[in-house]
Amino acid sequence: MNLEVKNLCFQYPSNDVLNDVTFSVKRNECVAILGTNGVGKSTLLKCLNRILRSKSGDVLVNRDNIQTMDSNTLAQKIGYVAQTSQFSETTVFDAILLGRKPYIKWDVTDNDLKLVQDIMDRLSLSKYAMRMVTHLSGGETQKIAIARALAQQSDVLLFDEPTSNLDLKNQYEVIRLIRDIVSENNISAVVTMHDLNLAMRFADKFIMMKDGKIFAAGERNVLTAENIGDVYGIDVVVENYGGTPVVIPIN
To answer: Of 133, 126, 155, 154, which is closest to residue 89 (Cα–Cα)?
Structure first.
């Protein structure tokens, strides 16, 4: 397994958030984390990236425990894109180039520069290369955060609601890009999402969370109307359209 999470628990002073969360992700696999607001999806990603220290449990990347890694090694192993990313007054090119920081020893190499340019081309960001990040829209800024994570060339990529500030076209562009990067580089991605229909179009496996625990996990067959109703508290039907299941709320 590329990523293994074993019996992970986390609590804030006032309440338990994650309780005995266990799952694994293979290489070339995209996993969608699903559930209502406040269920612990974002907290889970932060524990996987050691932004938050878990109360107990282990997170392993290629069998190496993240708790024993220095910060540079961790950044080479795991890339992370938050729901809202903060940037200083810098150009788009330099903001993405920061993703190469874990690898830079003395100076930026030609390979670093080429990699950044290739990523900007793929994300249609090249026209903004010399623009200041702080002068761009929220959606454009989100794409820059994703580009910076891709520049890390990590074994595992974590995305917290990567499409939340994007229009319909850019949502699908970003999701396809994540899928392509995972496949081309034989790595793993864990993505928190609210849009079930978008998740079903790109994810290989799904983890449904409820009350800080894994309620159901597996392939598309776990996304039943019954499970969705239990997790989200809404009646739905799951229909097939063009070979892809579609979740439709019932009025």
So the answer is: 133
Measured CA angle at 162 (ends 6, 143), to 5 deg: 135
Q: How far is CA 10 from CA 24, 46, 104, 215, 231, in A?
A: 18, 10, 33, 17, 20
Q: Which two tokens stand for residue 66?
A: 């993240």
CA-atom Rg of the chain in angstroms: 18
Q: What is the CA angle 95-101-103, rounded to 5? A: 140
Q: What is the pTM of this model?
A: 0.89
> Residue 85's CB: how many other CB atoms inside 10 A?
18
Contact 92, 143 (CB under 8 A): no
* Average pLDDT in the chain: 89
The tokens of 30 are what? 């995209």
Nearest to 51 by CA among 6, 10, 19, 110: 10
**Reported confidence tier of residue 58, pLDDT bands at 50, 70, 90:** very high
pLDDT digits (tens, 9 = 90+) for 167-195: 888 888 888 888 888 888 889 999 999 99
What is the model's pLDDT at position 1?
60
Residues 120/124/130/135 CA torsion (nearest 10 deg)? -120
Residue 15 bridge partners (DSSP): 12
List, for residues 104-154, the tens digit of each pLDDT value: 777 888 888 998 999 899 888 999 989 998 888 777 888 888 889 888 888
Residues in the chain: 251
DSSP state, residue 89: S
Q: What is the number of other CB atoms lying within 10 angstroms of the CB of residue 87?
A: 18
